Input
Amino acid sequence: MKMKTIKRVVEKATGVKLKNSNRARESVYARAIYFKLCRERTSKTLGEIGASVNKDHTSVLHAVKNVWPTIMSYNADFAHTYNKIADDEALLPCEERYNNLKIEYLRLVTKKGKKSLYKNEERYIKDLRKQY
Output
């Protein structure tokens, strides 16, 4: 997933512009959600993630290590917003979505008692899960 997509989704879900440099709690929490998702879903460095919203790498690190646990412990609304965004299947990288579909397909084929497309499909599913 691209950082622009993550930024757009977080801004829409929270109603906060991420490039806003104020220190209001809503802005800080929205940026922390953005930073956390970028760390999980992209291979960008802390500096690149921070630069996308006019912050430096230390701001990203602080948000992920210190602000993020606070959100999960004390602010149920922002925690729910993060969980909703993180669980959205459409926002997963293409390869991960493809492999999830493969696993689901194999599970359905196995349940219906049809012949397997793969000789060792259980092993195949385990291998796919290990990759991700």
User: Anything to note?
Assistant: Residues 3-88 form a domain with the Chromosomal Replication Initiator Protein Dnaa; Chain: A; fold (CATH 1.10.1750.10).
